[in-house]
Amino acid sequence: MNRPGRDDEPDRFYTLTGGRAAPTTEEFDPVTLVVSECVPAPAMQREHVAILTMCRQPTAVVEIAAELRLPIGITTVLVADLLHTGKVTVRHPELAAGPYGDTFDIDMLEKVLVGLRSL
Predict the structure, then answer these.
(1) pTM, 2 dp
(2) Could you tell me which InterPro entries the record lists for this protein (predicted)?
(3) What pLDDT band is residue 10 in, cutting at 50, 70 and 90?
C-alpha cells in the first residue's frame, strides 16, 4: 500500500528541508499551535504556502503534518523556517483551569486527536 508522504523517496524530504532533519533552535511538540502572520509570497515553496494558508487560525503542528501528509519532523523544520522569517508565530496550548486544577483544554485535545487519526 502506498502512503503519500510516508513512502516518498527520502530525496524529497531532503529537498524540502535543505537536508535538515530537525529545527535548528526551536523545540516543537505535536500540539504547538502555529498562526500565520502574513499572506504567502509568489515565490515561496508550496509547503510554506500551504502552512501559511491553513494557519490563518491557530493550527497544531500535528494537524499541519496530517494535512501536508508529511512526517512531523519534516513539518517542524518547515514551520521553524517560517518562524525564523517572522511569517508565523507559535505557542503551546494554554492550560485551562478546571475544577480539579490545571487541565488541558478539551477542545484542543479533540483537535489533536482528529489530527493524529488523520496520520
Answers:
(1) 0.65
(2) DUF742 (IPR007995)
(3) low
